[in-house]
Amino acid sequence: MAEPDLADPRWFPADYDAGSGRFRFVHVELSDLGDAPFLDRRLAIDWAHGFDVAVRDLPDHVDAHASFLFHTAFCGSTLLARALHAPPRAVSLKEPLALHALAMARLKARTAQELGEVAAALPRYLALVSRPWAEGGRVLIKPANQANGLLDSILSAQPRARAVLLYSSLRSFMVSCFKKLPDSEQRIRWMAQALLRDTQLSRRLGIEPGGAFNLVESCALAWYAQMERYALALDADTDDRLRTLDFDEVLAAPSDRVRDCAGWLQLADEGLDERVPRVFSRHSKGSSAAYDSEERDRENARVLDAFGETIDRAVDWAEGSIGPAALMPRWKPLHSG
């Protein structure tokens, strides 16, 4: 196999190994990226026949800038990213594994050298993964929410990038977490532990970020930690590159809000009127499975029938016990109507 041509976006930096400081480049097609719900090891590509390239050997002069869709998990980000995917001029990269690996390497770093290695790798990775797939095109990157701690670093590395900060209410987040039981409980605990390390919330609450939180505590701490991360980013947004979006607004007017996102994020919107109804009638994680607003409402109703009283008590507890210690964002709504 030929050596990778790093000017060609089909040579995709699919993974990162912090131990060796190397990225694995794998040859992909646009259809590989568009069809997959997440760009991780489940991606159906030839992982074994890629090339490992050390960070120091990556070009440092690539002038490519992406747009970003940050999110707080379980708030429709995959659905929105699919709706914004209009290849080849607008290409959505949904939770790329290499970016997640960089975020995890930063969280696990114990020395200044390890932190420096992540800081050196991030801008080169972002420039390469932002290579457009067509003349005048642009890439949209939707990081995993565990990468929210890199939000400031990502924006610093991509000074011309714009971003949307997508979120849901505390109650909606709780409903989504309970909807995914029992499989989600451990994941949500890990999420809370990781997210707390990027804020001062645990210090103000007098708790350890790595605590063995129960489900309700994990949900509430994860949500408030992300609100604080958003608050800090918005307060630092002196060059006005961020907008915020409540997913309930997306559900109320999908085509309008997707068009708003495409405009703000400088993404092509060809075929949007036909694409959005199709995307919003399918399950975001498996685009061939029907899943429209009525099915979403029925699913939420089943969760509330089973856990509604618990969720109500959990929200009241969180707002009274965690809310007063948390920083909340001063929102910059994408849609002001």
Q: Can you put this structure into words, describing what you see?
A:
The protein has 337 residues and is α/β, with parallel strands linked by helices. It has a single domain (11-325), classed as Rossmann fold (3-Layer(aba) Sandwich), CATH 3.40.50. Helices cover 46% and strands 14% of the residues. The strands form three sheets. It has a five-stranded parallel β-sheet with strand order 5-6-4-7-8, sandwiched between helices. A three-stranded antiparallel β-sheet has the order 1-2-3. It is globular.
- The appropriate CATH architecture is 3-Layer(aba) Sandwich
How is the largest sheet built, in terms of strand order? 5-6-4-7-8
Distance between the termini: 54 Å
How many strands, what sense, and barrel or not for the largest sheet? 5 strands, parallel
Q: Quote the CATH topology.
A: Rossmann fold
Number of distinct beta strands: 10
The amount of beta strand, in percent, is 5-15%
Instruction: Look at the structure and give the CATH class.
Output: Alpha Beta
Write a brief caption for the model.
By secondary structure, the chain is of the alpha/beta class. It is 46% helix and 14% strand.
SSE blueprint:
Blueprint (H helix, E strand, L loop, with lengths): L10 E7 L4 E6 L2 H6 L15 E4 L12 E4 L6 H8 L5 E5 L2 H12 L3 H18 L8 E5 L8 H7 L5 E5 L2 H10 L4 H13 L4 H5 L9 H21 L6 E5 H6 L1 H11 L7 H8 L2 E2 L2 E5 L2 H29 L16
Parallel strand pairs: 4-6, 4-7, 5-6, 7-8
Antiparallel strand pairs: 1-2, 2-3, 9-10
Helix pairs in contact: 2-12, 3-4, 6-9, 6-13, 7-9, 9-13, 11-12
Organism: Lysobacter stagni
InterPro entries: P-loop_NTPase
Protein name: Sulfotransferase family protein
